Amino acid sequence: MMIQTLRDRSSFHHWLHHRYSTPAGSGSSVDRKTKDVENYELLPKHEKALLSLTSMGYTVEEASAAVERCGPDASIGEITDFICAAQMAKTEAVFYEEEKPKKLFTSNGKLKRKKFHELEAHKRKKQKGPLTEEDEVIRLPNPMIGFGVPSGSTAITHRTLPDAAVGPPFFYYENVALAPKGVWDTISRFIYDVQPEFVDSQYFCATARKRGYVHNLPIKNRFPILPLPPRTIHDALPMTRRWWPEWDPRTKLNCLQTSYASSRLTDRIRKALEKWGESENVPEDVRKYVMYECRKWNLVWVGKNKVAPLEPDEVEMLLGFPRNHTRGGGISRTDRYKSLGNSFQVDTVAYHLSVLKDIFPNGINMLSLFSGIGGAEVALHRLGIPLKNVVSVELSEANRDIVRSWWEQTNQKGNLVHLADVQQLNPDKLEQLMRPFGGFDLVVGGSPCNNLAGSNRVSRDGLEGEQSALFYEFPRILDLVKCIMNGQNEN
DNA sequence: AACACCATGAGAAATCTT
DNA sequence: AAGATTTCTCATGGTGTT
């Protein structure tokens, strides 16, 4: 009966309409969320919180950022804890300190490209009036530490989830933090209005990775996997230390991406440096040029005057994967870079998932959407959480091969089922998959970022872009899982 | 202003297939 | 050897936050 209901609403567009809201310009569409918020806004709790915080001596910036992150239901104590944690992390983090360059080595401005993520832009049509829901855009926290990171002395340990978000199952969704405006609002709205936790992996390892995570996991008593990964470039890549010029102040790498610097570029850099002899003789403007390219392309020093992009091995290690995880078995070098660049940072994700260890001492059943090279699987394994049944959905055959190889190499006792296309996962199929073990304890997924990522110069179209629109599969399937599990419980 | 950003696509080169 | 396919090389801005 429940399944029948699901089948009725399984038409994607019908379902989309059910949940989608276009706040601006479409007064006709009545939306559940819009209504709720309008009522709620009648009592602006966060305004009150802001007032008391500023009266306590915090700056408006600190206070508003903290209130935004902690949510309107947070107590003043929780909010001040957050501000405290933020201040601590700020003083700890000393990155990229340097004199400001006078010249930019970018190419000249060109003709304006066509309209950018028109839909999102349309949503925030200027309504300069009092704070309405449409202006309530999710903002990124600074520092980007989410509810807390391992080295932070204080962390937020409590939050109030919307009723609809409370598990089972637990869910964990991930995507790039720096998405076009409005994207995270939409993502949050589609996943039971859970506020994203934005975290930069530079607080976990030697490389930055700014991501948003929407999840309903407990946030108390998190712990990192051991051993802790190297936290600086020098510790992660000790061979580079010898060649690192004193005027390169980097201690952390920038985000690891899917494309890498050309040999021509590193050649140009070598030639630019060679004529000056020792590195201390390199003039200021050349240093600026070299540093600009090094930051842009994550180059490291591998010899005298020689910079190089990271090897796949090194990317693997920085992201927390076992050595050779993506190596061999028929994957090309290019695809290896691509698969790694699109992956989780294992230590970061594991920290968030660590709370599951006490809840599921005998192991978990997991649905993994957009699995990629299995970041979530690796994280759980490293945490010592047994994997009982894993249904992994991943389009790329090369990636599926990687996960399957890892599964066999690590002598998993559980059962791994691989599927290719999330769009093919209908209620019947899902019900059939879940029947042997009752249901999923955890649903994980990081949907395609192609049309959200800042590096995309061609088709950064937002959530409606060709690949990134697959995001909607996550809440669709999560809903299905939830319904099927409730249906089974009723029987 | 400075800076960072899970990328894409055209064309060349290498490799595989017939 | 010719054609088909895969892999590699390289250049290509703009948005949003600080």
UniProtKB/TrEMBL annotation:
MF (Gene Ontology): DNA (cytosine-5-)-methyltransferase activity; DNA binding
The enzyme's E.C. designation: 2.1.1.37
Family in the record: Belongs to the class I-like SAM-binding methyltransferase superfamily. C5-methyltransferase family.
Protein name: DNA (cytosine-5-)-methyltransferase
Active site, per annotation: 449
Protein origin, superkingdom: Eukaryota
Coiled-coil regions, chain positions: none
Compartments (UniProt record): Nucleus
SAM-dependent MTase DRM-type domain boundaries: 157-488
Gene source species: Lactuca sativa
Top EC class for this record: transferase
